[in-house]
Specification:
The protein is α+β, with helices and mostly antiparallel strands. The protein is built from five helices and twelve strands. A hairpin with a 4-residue loop joins strand 11 and strand 12. Helix 3 packs parallel to helix 5.
Length: 241
């Protein structure tokens, strides 16, 4: 009995020390963008920060880092195979070209209709990611929405947003903050041309998709826990068969 109690206390202590050291224990599936965001924060530490108002903010608000190869689509121009940076804190899109290699040109929210991050396994991008500006989906949010899966009837989108959060290990610098990357799922109804925010759980998303077809055979809580995006893609493909 004493041995069991000792082992339990040891596990708890390891978990606590890991958390205090900034190491997040792996529990199930973690969004690749959030994993990359956390990795950047842990690698840079508190010595590298960005000033936002009175705050020193550590980490990054850029999705998958500050440069990724991609394509940009706007009403006035299209650019392919350029370096892009998507700032999820202010929803600005930055791009680099041969004429501005070191200093990016900045596009405010809405100046770009859509853009694509090309696959880059070095940062966790296993496949291309396409983003559409909210206006084109019936949203009033000044934000871009990643296409998780979409078809003629409906689509599921993901909106990333960086917030400034407290640094749990900081007890001295009151002005120190960190970028916390968050995301929400949305469902788009092509018939009504409206978009709706979803609760981030299997039951809620399955219920909304079931309006367009019975997805029970391809959508389960276990599958969603193992990989939400893959499960959603499978369900959206199923309702469009």
């Amino acid at each position: 009995m004493k041995r069991i109690v000792f082992l339990l206390l040891w596990v708890i202590s390891v978990y606590t020390v890991s958390a205090q050291a900034g190491i997040t224990p792996t529990v199930g599936w973690v969004d690749p963008a959030m994993s990359h965001n956390r990795l950047i924060r842990e690698q840079t530490g508190e010595g590298v920060y960005k000033l936002i108002g009175p705050y020193k903010v550590i980490g990054t608000s850029y999705l998958f880092g500050d440069r990724n190869k991609g394509n940009l689509y706007a009403s006035e121009a299209t650019a392919v195979n350029i370096q892009l940076a998507y700032n999820t804190y202010n929803q600005e899109l930055e791009f680099f070209s041969g004429e501005n290699i070191n200093k990016p040109l900045v596009k405010s929210p809405g100046e770009v209709d859509s853009f694509v991050f090309l696959a880059n396994k070095a940062v966790g991008l296993d496949q291309d990611l396409r983003f559409v500006y909210g206006k084109h989906l019936g949203s009033s949010e000044k934000a871009y929405f990643q296409v998780v899966a979409a078809g003629p009837k409906a689509g599921i989108y993901k909106r990333y947003k960086a917030d400034m959060g407290y640094v749990s290990s900081n007890y001295v610098q009151s002005e120190l903050r960190q970028f916390d990357l968050l995301y929400d799922y949305f469902i788009y109804n092509a018939n009504t041309k409206t978009i709706k925010k979803l609760k981030n759980n299997a039951g809620s998303i399955q219920k909304e998709l079931s309006v367009f077809g019975d997805v029970a055979s391809v959508f389960s809580s276990d599958a969603f826990s193992a990989n939400p995006d893959a499960t959603i893609r499978k369900a959206v493909l199923f309702i469009h068969q």
